[in-house]
Structure of Cobalt transport protein CbiM:
Amino acid sequence: MKKKFLMALYLLGVGVCLNMRTAHAMHIMEGYLPLNYALFWIALSLPFLFVGIKKLSRVMDKQRRVLIILAMTGAYAFVLSALKIPSVTGSSSHPTGMGLVTIFFGPSIAAVIGLIVLLFQALLLAHGGLTTLGANTFSMGIVGPIVTYVIYKYGNKVSKNKHFVIFLAVALGDLLTYVVTSIQLALAHPSEVGGVLASFTKFATVFALTQVPIAIIEGILTVIVMISLESVAKPELDLLGYSLEG
């Protein structure tokens, strides 16, 4: 257990060290959304966060043995979503890291973890922003995990290859995160010619050039991490109801 805790701290430290610089990144940056849009995404995220906080409280009260897994998945999300990979726009793309926590704890708790990760990144790394916290939480912490969870649950009913299902769920959850980000940017900054649809097409097309391979890599990496956890943390995974069988 001590080794698992130290691993979580190590991953978190690596993420901070690699990203102690200001950069325009694929979290929507501070001040980029008009106030009315910023408030709208905050309001839309609040019900999901409320449910997630209640579920997280129950886990912390009744399943304390799995808290180390929760800490590790949070550190994993922090590190992956802080890794900024240059994009053709002069900004950057990155993995989300939310697939692991979603598979173990569900989309509601993932929303809370996503909020915490985004808040610390905004404060420590200038990655994202406080005024855009609602929009970034909705795309990365709510929509992405919901997509991942639905595909994971349905996929396990139709396929015996559990690890392929995990790969597919995580990769598509990552991609849908950036579809939502493109919608958010298009709504706030419609094109003078073609309006919201033209703006969405532009954002989505540009992001796809880097985000599609990133989503594939994140899916593969999550499967590798999952296989490792199946070996070293089987008792905790059993408590979470995670079956090693497909």
About this structure: The beta strands are 85-86, 92-93. The chain is about 75% helix and 0% strand. Residues 1-25 have pLDDT under 50 and may be disordered. Residues 24-240 form a domain with the Arp2/3 complex 21 kDa subunit ARPC3 fold (CATH 1.10.1760.20).
